[in-house]
Amino acid sequence: MGRGLRLSRSLQLLGAALLATASQVSIAAKDDPAAFEAALLEAVFSDHARYLADLAVAHEHGEGVEREPARAAALYCESARLGNVEAMYSLGWMYANGRGLERNDAYAGTLFAMAAFFGHPQADRMRRYTGDYEGAVPDCLQPPPDESPDPGWSAEAYIAALSVQRQHLARLVVNLSADYAISPRLALAIALTESNLDADAVSSKNAMGVMQLIPDTAARFNVRKPFDPEENIRGGLAYLRWLLAYFRGDIALAAAGYNAGERAVDRYRGVPPYAETQAYVARILAFMQRRKHAYDSRVTEPSPVAPALQLVSERGGGS
Fold first, then answer.
1. Which H, E and C letters describe the chain, residue by residue?
2. Known catalytic residue: 78?
3. What's the mean pLDDT in 116-125?
4. CATH no., domain 155-314
């Protein structure tokens, strides 16, 4: 509680400074503390991203500082991660022209696709020279490896608190999750949210079993006996592994895809505006307490709008 109060006080002080310098935080938002804090954080990220992009320009062209293309590229990349569209475009240009970096049209195409998604006027035209987006992402934009995904959380302690009839299925979910490189916590979150660990559950849409597989999904992942607990759980975990690869480890988007289908997430470029799906994603994220998960990029090609979706999600616009 003390840390939260200190953070809130720090944000208030920073907010006052930002407002005094005509920042983008709206004065009206101050009437709603939560909205004010969200707008303030957005302004902080935006201002810092702009500062990094400006510094990158200086290092790229030697304006007032030593000309260091490699340093410029690193600054552009960090700015792009924070959502600066001009930095996305500029880094793409460096890759497309081999300026300070080894030429890489695939990386350039990704960065131009990201910038075009956010409305950059030249980015879409540049994609004609670099080719279509292929899913290649520069290392500097990749999320850091998740070496300790659930510190302090014990699957066994959680299972022990369940009713006796659900403990067997919960352990089955946890044990099988390792076969699919999925966090036991995420596997349990999906199983609990889908059926509350009921192997006989059937929804109004004919979703079946522990992982609530609809017939098309069951067939897609070779589930022939959807009411067999192990086969059903394996099918659900296989689909979840696919979704994590498709959405590049974004738990919110993967959960939205599990509930509403990956095509709906692509169509709305984020969590679809369905009350059920939004509540579903909120429950999964509350259970997980994080947004990122390791994934195997070999499982499938990424969503065609994956880079932009990741940026939207990371900045709070995806849930």
1. CHHHHHHHHHHHHHHHHHHHCCCCCCHHHHHCHHHHHHHHHHHHHHHHHHHHHHHHHHHHHCCCCCCCHHHHHHHHHHHHHCCCHHHHHHHHHHHHHCCCCCCCHHHHHHHHHHHHHCCCCCHHHHHHHHCCCCCCCCHHHCCCCCCCCCCCCCHHHHHHCCCHHHHHHHHHHHHHHHHHCCCHHHHHHHHHHHHCCCCCCECCCCCECCCCECHHHHHHCCCCCCCCHHHHHHHHHHHHHHHHHHCCCEHHHHHHHHHHCHHHHHHHCCCCCCHHHHHHHHHHHHHHCCCECCCCCCCCCCCCCHHHHHHHHHCCCCC
2. no
3. 84
4. 1.10.530.10
